[in-house]
Write a structure and sequence with these properties.
The complex is a heterodimer of chains A (305) and B (99).
Chain A (H helix, E strand, L loop, with lengths): L11 H14 L4 E8 L5 E7 L7 E6 L6 H17 L4 H7 L3 E5 L4 H9 L52 H13 L2 E9 L3 E4 L11 H19 L4 E4 H4 L7 H7 L4 E7 L14 H21 L3
Parallel strand pairs in A: 3-4, 3-5, 5-8, 6-7
Antiparallel strand pairs in A: 1-2, 2-4, 6-8
Helix pairs in contact in A: 1-2, 2-9, 6-9
Chain B lengths: L7 E6 L3 H11 L7 E4 L8 E5 L1 H13 L3 E6 L2 H22 L1
Antiparallel strand pairs in B: 1-3, 1-4, 2-3
The chains are: A alpha/beta (305), B alpha+beta (99).
Amino acid sequence: TDSFDYANYHTISEIYNFQDMLVRENPNLVSKIVIGQSYEGRPLSVLKFSTGANRPGLWIDTGIHSREWVTQASGTWFAKKIATAYGSDPALTAILNNMDIFLLIMTNPDGFAYTQTNNRMWRKTRKPNPGSSCVGVDPNRNWDAGFGEPGASNNPCSETYRGPRANSESEVKSIVDFVRSHGNLKSFISIHSYSQMLLYPYGYTSTPAKDQAELHSLAKKAITALASLYGTRYRYGSIINTIYQASGGTIDWTYNQGIKYSYTFELRDTGDYGFLLPANQIIPTAEETWLALMVIMKHAYKNAY
Amino acid sequence: KETFEGHQVLRITAKDEAQLALIKDLEDMIHFELDFWRGVTDVASPVDVRVPFHSLQSVKVYLETKAIEYATMIEDLQALLEKEQEEMDAVARAGGARS
């Protein structure tokens, strides 16, 4: 994985190969867990970074909206960073000596494959919708948190189609099952692009999360760390107050499951390309995001609950 | 493979809540087949929307008649996608040569 080109976009098979290579190179630190499969049968492979048994966990996922390629590319960079920083970065080493990190790089593999073969603009899953010629569900509207309430569409042709029921998408259900069976995740970070925001629950209701004060101050710390590298400015706050009402969202569900440090990122926006971020932006984006991730993970480690 | 010849991505900026509501109305105009890359949030945040060629004129006329400011963020989407593909192909070729 030293010669993997982190500064460019890659095909799905290259990313899957990268994951396997990282596991082979670091057998005492990294393993691969297949938590389920996509509608088209692709594996949902989570990289588990672990130095011992029965640890609490920290979750990161990238690419749930398949066209946001900078997120999968950043996830690949994070994986290598975690593997190389363990043992040399004291903060990460301390975390990994006490907690596991779970990283799902390819959260929507069917969508990602489709962006590379058929339609670069594809965002949703690829499961057909009975009775409609439009395919796919927005996997960030398919979670059982305010599902079906305002902030998602019931039209299969919409980019924010919520699906026929919560967890109808295997890509979502597989994570739900994993989170429930693990039972001890302490943070859950879902990464999107673009628009430079760090958001916490809720999206489906304006009722503040009970930990809002802590989540807000931690978000501020995280975006301050992020900005320290290249000056990239982020907005932060609850989803409903910072963007708009969005129901059935990932981190609303994880927060309601008791994972206090539930956040979602919207990565870098250069103002010129939207989510078609040029490849030369991948490493700067990943580097600055890593600083914010570390702030959240360190906080979760030091503030056990 | 789906192509996007003639599609543009517009960055739309509302100056007040009334204009924001007018931009929001675009979301319901299904016949335009718009793809909101960045949705309608607040006056401080621009809206980015991919507009197919067949809707470009109508959408621009709509915005201009309502005096809503916009800029063309991506002039030629297909050209950008082709450049992206060329870069990926170059990486793949380099990778092949290495192995």
